[in-house]
Amino acid sequence: MKKIGSIILAIIIYSSIVFYFGWSVSTWLEAFFTINSWLFLVIWFLFAFAIIIARLDHRLRTFSIIGSYWLIVMQYGILLFPVATIFAWVFPGQLKLIGGIVLLFFVLIMLLGTYNAFSPVVRELKITMPKKDASVDSLKVVVASDFHLGLLSNKAHLMRFVKKSNEQNPDLVLLVGDLVDDDPIWFVKKGMSEVMKQLRSTYGNYGVLGNHEYYGKKIPLLIEEMEASSVQMLLDETILVADTFYLTGREDLTNRIRKELSELAPKEKNLPWFVMDHTPSNLLIPEKEKVDFHVSGHTHRGQMWPNHLFTQRIFELDYGYRKKGSMHAIVSSGFGFWGPPIRLGSRSELWSIEIKLEDVEV
Hints:
The chain is an alpha/beta fold. Helix content is about 40%, strand content about 20%. The protein is built from 13 helices and 12 strands. It has helices at about 1-30, 35-50, 50-55, 60-90, 95-120, 155-165, 185-190, 190-195, 210-215, 220-230, 260-265, 285-290, 310-315, and strands spanning about 120-130, 140-145, 170-175, 205-210, 230-235, 235-240, 245-250, 275, 295, 320-325, 325-330, 350-360. A 6-stranded mixed sheet has the order 1-12-2-3-4-5. A 6-stranded mixed sheet has the order 6-7-8-9-11-10. Helix 11 links the parallel strand 7 (about 245-250) and strand 8 (about 275). Helix 1 packs across helix 4 (about 60-90) and helix 4 (about 60-90) packs antiparallel against helix 5. The longest helix is centred in the N-terminal third of the chain and has 30 residues, at about 60-90. The chain starts with a helix and ends with a strand.
């Protein structure tokens, strides 16, 4: 009963915000021409609840796209509309100008955010770790996460990743979760497997599940598609790669019955140990277990400013590189995006890491 009450309260609060935003926009539009208030209200609320409507059926994909862009209105409307309302009260004769400035802000947000989302960069890093009994002296590793492949983070965006990754001539490619946006249906329908197959590396391409794969509830289909795309999915398992390093792929934290990292630790400690874990929930554990190289995603670095202020408080390392004890940890902001195809305060990216293996003291 308490849960139902919370849901009802959330709907009331959300609807109130939506109504306020709609009232603000309609008031500004009426300064230019007459509008049908009821028609505007219906269209406005269809936009506001589009992301929910889209979940009723895959054929309603137009609503999915509208709903994704609506999140921009919610994100920045909270900041812009109250300020605009105050200025409109103080300067009632300047309503057209004030509304125009708000619109300009949204246009700039869209333009800059779209550029950051669809113009991915390569983050380069050089690190050194103990060679132990590894058969090589160096490794080039590409790390990417949070593709959210679907309608907006689409086949063309995946092609950008494959091109940039192949340009690095990697020995290893690690895809650290949230490969698809909940349901892999668009990965299948749009033939993205044919693009992913073009991903090249010396020792193979490996992936793990993220929270959104669990939300989609079609993990068997995803695994099948990834295997067909030459990406080996690791689900709470550790493998030996080319007699050079151990590679562990953890189930995401969403899976409450996933194995402890200690259960996945290699019995022999004679080679470097790499771990993929989508959510960087607790880096103390892999540090304690003597992991050499730990990679994650999930945070998106907040994706849209100022959300990074929250991710910084939630995670010990919400973005970038840190050496923690003898462990090298990386958290990527992701190659794709969740919701609207924009990034502000973050950038779509992949990491290219040169690992030098030496006989060094830990």
